[in-house]
Amino acid sequence: MAMLWNIPAHRKLQVHQILCRKKERDRDQIHPYKVIEITPPPTSLGVRCLSPNLQCGESVTIEGKTYTISAVTHRYQLRKGKYQPSEKRLDVLSTGRYILNLYLENLLEQS
C-alpha cells in the first residue's frame, strides 16, 4: 500500500491510497527467487523478487552490485496428485568473475 499526500492551495490535507493486489488465480504461482553467489565460498544474497523469466547470462543488480546469472533452478513438489512450483533459485557470479570464467574456458578449449 502506498500513500500519496496532496496539499492544495487552501491547505486541506487529502490522502490518496493506492492498493496493489494480484489476481486471486496468480497468488499460488508467485515464488520469489532464492539468490546464491556461487563464487567460493558460496554466499546467500537472500530472497529477492525479480522479473519472472530470467535466463542464464542475464545481468541482475542486487544491493548496488551487478551479477550475471549462471544457473536457474525450478523445484516442484507433488501435492494432491499434481506437481506445483515450490522454489526458484538463482546461482549468480559477479559480472567480472563471469567474464573471466568465459575467457578461461575459451583458452582451455583452444589448447
TrEMBL record:
Q: Which domain of life is it from?
A: Eukaryota
Q: Which organism is it from?
A: Daucus carota subsp. sativus (Carrot)
Q: What is this protein called?
A: Uncharacterized protein
Q: Which PANTHER family match?
A: OS04G0482900 PROTEIN (PTHR36397:SF1), OSJNBA0081L15.1 PROTEIN (PTHR36397)
